[in-house]
């Protein structure tokens, strides 16, 4: 409060005036604004909050992700999860609002979960409770592979668009995309780009496929393949559209978004996927380190060099107005925008991230990064870890590989799990977190495997938060090239040598 020129030190104020001033100050504590202006009414609207996973009535075991949906007119400042009325972990202060619950530390009984949201004005609200049953004494999980379709030729990727049709699309290394509908492989290929490929063997060919999140209305999809057009080997990221006249046939018109020169024929990466980036969905692209052995290209290796796109996970915007000279936009939140390094880079320090996926409830990114000669690794990144250095070629997994001077000052993010080349394991194939309904014991569990051995594993955390791998299946040596996830959350495998697409199924169930 400001007074006129007759202001006197407080010690000379009459007692009544002093008391009135003190009362006035107390009434307006915490208010802001220009002198003489009354502040607006305080926000009293509580947040809206509900537990989204697990659903009420679910049976859970092992490590479970607990998630909440929360919104507020002035913004959600945090969500605290409650287990049987007590705090479950620490408050989560930014989306996605989720935490991990190790059910092995809870009794085998019914438990209640709820979420308490707090907004920026200090208002709170608690969700309705959901009741779930913890059962960690289930009989050992027995899985098998049930054939869905046969007759494919070297399938390398398996995707299901969000269009409600239940169709599975299989990308063959030779350049064809086939459709599985109602248990049958359609005779006519959805797309055939075989004439554009550099090769259809080794680590070249049609390597990846991704459907736009709004594919049901815009018919857009994207492919990752290798080409020798122009006389030099390069990776091509291209956009196509399904025909407006026939949903089972693609328009052959191609829009090339990005090309990246490849110094060798191996380590091309190949994965494509749309992430969960708030109000927008950006396209993520996996590129290997350029091949050869030991990442010998460049002075520090391509994986560590942020001035090359090789050895990276890229993130681009395919929905906004393209940046000058490009066929796509650069998300302004990419970590190297206005920094040293290429704007497209999201993560670096990778060797050959052939397969990766996003877990929708948590928005976390899971990567299977193929190792050099001794170790394979699985990486887990949150949406807040853009710009992370995953270590290659300084490290192979958690083990020192070529730890040169640049590595000594770098902040390296270790994988959550790595495994040695033993029992014929030698090429990790990244998979998916299971969100189907047919195998409750797999709920919220990461499923992945190995191409060379054909082993299929789950990856879960124990009571000490250590990641534990458990073998649950085998697809056969040299036969596991990809996992797929249907719209219903069920998981599938692609058999490279057999040409069989299979469904992961629990023994003893329909």
What distance separates the N and C termini?
Answer: 76 Å
- Assign the structural class, choosing from mainly alpha, mainly beta, alpha/beta, alpha+beta, or little secondary structure: mainly beta
**Tally of strands:** 36
> Residue ranges: pLDDT <50 for 5 or more in a row?
1-36
Could you explain the architecture of this structure?
This protein is mainly β and 510 residues long. 4% of the residues lie in helices and 39% in strands. It is built from three helices and 36 strands. Strands 2, 4, 5, 7, 8 and 9 form a six-stranded mixed beta sheet that branches. Mean pLDDT is 91; it is low at 1-36.
Record keyword descriptors for this entry.
510 residues; mainly beta; six-stranded mixed beta sheet; five-stranded antiparallel beta sheet; disordered N terminus
In terms of topology, how is this protein built?
Layout: H1 15-27, E1 48-53, E2 59-60, E3 63-71, E4 76-83, E5 86-87, E6 98-102, E7 110-119, E8 124-126, E9 130-134, E10 143-149, E11 155-159, E12 168-172, E13 176-181, E14 184-185, E15 191-192, E16 206-211, H2 215-218, E17 220-227, E18 234-242, E19 250-261, E20 272-274, E21 283-287, E22 312-316, E23 345-348, E24 355-359, E25 364-369, E26 375-381, E27 395-396, E28 399-400, H3 405-408, E29 417-420, E30 428-433, E31 446-450, E32 455-461, E33 467-474, E34 480-485, E35 491-495, E36 501-506
Parallel strand pairs: 2-9
Antiparallel strand pairs: 1-3, 3-6, 4-5, 4-7, 7-8, 7-9, 10-36, 11-12, 12-13, 13-14, 13-15, 16-17, 17-18, 18-19, 20-21, 21-22, 22-23, 24-25, 25-26, 26-29, 27-28, 30-31, 31-32, 32-33, 34-35, 35-36
């Amino acid at each position: 409060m400001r007074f006129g020129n007759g202001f006197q030190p407080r010690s000379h104020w009459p007692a009544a005036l002093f008391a009135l001033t003190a009362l006035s100050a107390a009434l307006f504590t915490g208010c802001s604004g220009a002198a003489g202006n009354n502040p607006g009414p305080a926000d009293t609207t509580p947040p809206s909050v509900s537990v989204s996973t697990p659903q009420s009535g679910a049976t859970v075991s092992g490590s479970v992700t607990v998630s909440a949906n929360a919104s507020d007119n002035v913004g959600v400042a945090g969500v605290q999860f409650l287990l049987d009325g007590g705090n479950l972990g620490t408050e989560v202060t930014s989306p996605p609002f989720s935490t991990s619950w190790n059910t092995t530390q809870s009794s085998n009984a019914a438990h209640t979960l709820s979420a308490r949201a707090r907004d920026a004005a200090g208002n709170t609200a608690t969700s309705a409770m959901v009741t779930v049953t913890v059962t960690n004494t289930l009989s050992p999980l027995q899985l098998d592979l049930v054939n869905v379709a046969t007759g494919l030729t070297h399938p390398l990727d398996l995707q299901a668009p969000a269009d409600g049709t239940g169709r599975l699309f299989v990308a063959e290394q030779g350049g064809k995309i086939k459709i599985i509908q109602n248990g049958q492989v359609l005779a006519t290929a959805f797309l055939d780009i075989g004439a554009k490929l550099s090769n259809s063997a080794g680590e070249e060919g049609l390597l990846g496929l991704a459907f736009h999140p709004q594919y049901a209305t815009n018919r857009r999809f994207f492919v990752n393949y290798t080409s020798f057009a122009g006389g030099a080997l390069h990776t091509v990221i291209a956009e196509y559209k399904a025909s407006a006249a026939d949903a089972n046939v693609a328009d052959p018109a191609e829009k090339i978004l990005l090309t990246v020169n490849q110094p060798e024929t191996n380590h091309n990466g190949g994965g494509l996927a749309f992430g969960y980036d708030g109000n927008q969905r950006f396209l993520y692209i996996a590129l290997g380190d350029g091949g050869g052995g030991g990442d010998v290209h460049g002075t520090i290796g391509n994986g560590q060099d942020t001035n090359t796109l090789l050895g990276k996970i890229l993130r681009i915007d395919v929905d906004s107005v393209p940046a000058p000279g490009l066929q796509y936009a650069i998300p302004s939140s990419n970590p190297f925008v206005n920094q040293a390094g290429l704007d497209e880079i999201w993560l670096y320090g990778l060797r050959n991230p052939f397969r990766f996926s996003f877990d929708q409830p948590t928005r976390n990114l899971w990567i299977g990064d193929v190792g050099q000669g001794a170790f394979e690794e699985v990486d887990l990144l949150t949406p807040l870890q853009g710009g992370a250095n995953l270590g290659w070629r300084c490290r192979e997994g958690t083990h020192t590989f070529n730890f040169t001077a640049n590595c000594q000052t770098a902040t390296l993010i270790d994988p959550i799990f790595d495994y040695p080349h033993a029992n014929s394991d030698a090429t990790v194939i990244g998979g998916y977190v299971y969100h189907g309904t047919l195998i409750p014991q797999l709920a919220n569990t990461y499923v992945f495997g190995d191409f060379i051995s054909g082993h299929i594993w789950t990856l879960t955390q124990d009571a000490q938060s250590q990641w534990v791998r458990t073998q649950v299946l085998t697809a056969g040596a040299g036969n596991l090239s990809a996992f797929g996830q249907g719209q219903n959350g069920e998981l599938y495998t692609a058999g490279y040598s057999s040409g069989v697409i299979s469904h992961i199924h629990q023994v003893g169930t329909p």
